[in-house]
Amino acid sequence: MLGSEGERPIYISDEMARALIDEQFPRFAHEELGRRYTLEDQFAIRIGDDYGAIFPRTSDKDAAYARVTELVAAQAARWSFPASLPIARGVPGHGFPYHWTLVRWISASSSAFVPLHGSSVRALGAAIRQIHEGAPRQAPINPVTGIGLEAMRAEFELMLSFAVAKGAPENRVIDEASVRAAYDAGASAPVDVAPSWTHGRLEPRAIMSDRGDFAGILLWHNFGAGDVAGDLGFASTMVPIDSRDEFWTGYGPITPATATRAAAYELWAALKYIHVDDPFLLRVAWERLIELELAHEA
User: Fold this and answer.
1) Distance between CA atoms of 118 and 126, rounded to whole angstroms?
2) C-alpha dist (Å) from residue 46 to 37, 51, 52, 70
3) CA 20 to 30 Å from 248, out of 60, 129, 174, 255?
4) pLDDT at 5 exceeding the cut of 60
5) Residue 244 pLDDT > 60, yes or no?
6) Do the strands 100-104 and 51-56 form a parallel or antiparallel pair, or are they unpaired?
7) Which segments within the chain are labelled E, that is strand?
8) For the sheet containing 86-90, what is the strand order?
9) What contacts 62, CB < 8 A, 6 or more positions away?
């Protein structure tokens, strides 16, 4: 989601990160802090060769960061795919107001920067299938996949208006009516599968690529119960049309209603990437919209 209305993301300095890490995880006090990555809603910094820390930049993420370490640990023992999992929870301090996480670091590129090969999307689909185990009734709700497409409509309309006003590359325009019709179809489709554990942020910056091979999944803070179609729609933004059979071979069959909802989530994700205005996400978003014939020549 886009964050609390009117809230400006906070800045986390190297000095603040160093103080928090050294005080709460003193075994890393002598490890060098490496590359830093600042996204619109989070900040990540590498610790030595094998670890990292991720800090939310907006208040609406605090509760998710506070719960995710224990929540993921209870499920991840069954997973066989590589993942940068949260392994410990950090707490507020030194002027930083939110919970944060210590993670295992994966040395690879994001698929936003190095897209997955067509043959690698089968492994991505198989990994997502492992995540999608049934969630118990008392499981916390995933803030993206667990609220339903209708609850996300206002944000969809805002982002669609932004994308239409921004304009598409290569002298193309968005087919606004068709995009809205596909979203309406997804929002109207029945949720005919039980709530499952879901990732909730399977965007290109969360999927790692080793020279085009699937190398793991990051950014677990949204983890919770939700509609599998949300994850499948987000992940589809990384899968070109001509590679989708490979993806579905890895994941397995889904119901027609789930496919319709996933298509709507894919559009929501693409519009989000345009709204974020990251150049790599923009490329992914427009590639999918053009392939789906939802952006055409003016």
Assistant:
1) 14
2) 9, 6, 4, 22
3) 174
4) no
5) yes
6) antiparallel
7) 33-38, 42-47, 51-56, 86-90, 100-104, 109-110, 172-174, 196-198, 207-210, 213-217, 224-226, 295-297
8) 33-38, 42-47, 51-56, 100-104, 86-90
9) 56, 97, 98, 99
Place of tokens 């698929």: 111
Which residue ranges form the domains of the chain, and what is each CATH number?
Answer: 14-106 (3.30.200.20), 110-297 (3.90.1200.10)
Place of tokens 């994308």: 163
Distance CA 126, CA 154 (A): 32
| Distance separating alpha carbons of residues 157 and 82, to the nearest angstrom | 36
Alpha carbon distance 298, 82 (integer Å):
43
Q: Are 9 and 41 in contact (CB under 8 A)?
A: yes
Three-state DSSP class for 140?
Answer: coil
pTM of the model as a whole:
0.94
CB 18 within 8 A of CB 36: no
pLDDT at position 1 is 41
Residues 199 and 145: their CA atoms lie apart, in Å, by: 8
Alpha helix ranges (H) inside 225-255:
228-236, 244-251
Helix (H) or strand (E) holding 126: helix 121-131
99: alpha, beta or left? (left if phi > 0; alpha if psi -120 to 50): beta
For 43, the 3-state DSSP assignment is: strand
Per-residue pLDDT averaged across 12-21, rounded?
96
What value does the mean pLDDT of the chain take?
Answer: 94
Residue that has been written with the tokens 């944060």 in this structure: 100
How confident is the model over 261-277, as a mean pLDDT?
Answer: 96
pLDDT at 69: 97
- The answer to whether residue 2 scores a pLDDT higher than 50 is no
